[in-house]
Amino acid sequence: MKIVAVIPAYNEGERVGAVVKDALRFVETVVVVDDGSSDETARYAIEAGAILVQHPENCGAGAATMTGIDAARALGADAIVTLDADEQHNPDDIPAMIAPIRDGTADIAFANRFGRRNSIPLIRRTFNAIGNVITFVATGKWVSDSQCGFKALGPKAVKEIDLKMSGYEFCTEIVREAAQHRWKIAQIPAKVIYSEYTLAKGQSFAGGVKTALRILLRSFLR
Amino acid sequence: MEITPYQLLAPLVSLIAVAYAWNLFFRKKKTLWEVILWTAFWGLIAWIALYPDSIDYLTAVTGIQSRENAVMVTFLGILFFIVFYLIIRLESLEQRQTRFIRKIALRDAGLLDDKKSMEKDEDL
Prior knowledge:
heterodimer
């Protein structure tokens, strides 16, 4: 099974290299999608051994993820792992994420940061809970950590997935895709590493509200 | 019971909207969950039109009791719908632009599957 890791990155020059090197311990190929960065993200990604796809303009995490998925398909991927470029996810969890894909018990595996002991700030827990509820209202599927960027897609999901939302809404859209195509879902407890940097990079409250409204609006008027 | 033209029109529009939603579901463009929400929403509109007394409590709470107020609220609702529609159109334009940028990126990386890309364009 050819597994490709997809890492969407925006101004992550200081961190993307380490993430690529760590991921390459577990997968054959890493695709970094530089989403219109103004720093050295592209150079560090290539130096670390990734295949680079570069958006000429910043389009958002969802668009970058879908570009990475298209690139992985073109490279002949049977399975895809998506993870963030800010060192928030631990690539050591990749084998556990891929396990249900390999044994055919799941078409998609969602990392669950709340499924094990992790030091997660209360504000993050609250926002994630709200995100989960909105995702459930929009899709009818309950996923314990719907807003986490760490996911594994099996062959069926790789073939069928088609994300249209450009921003952070894509996390909810993936759950919708899972519901629409009736993918088998696995939820894998995963480690998360929050630093001041990753906390500062997260969505603002206003951004979260905007994302929520877009999700609800889109799902209603689709 | 005296039936007004609105009481005939609203359920008819609701019926068309519900039929359209189910059509999208059978064409696999809507999920079952979405079509149920859509049906419930338009069902409620039709119900309120046919049985306006059923929202007596709401009119008492909101203060919308007179016909003039009801007309104003209806037009506000229509304005909201137009704004939502414009937002959706803007999003659709944004999506086209994003697809264009993504295509350029994949082509520059030598990873663009032209055949699949054209199939997606036809789907739009």
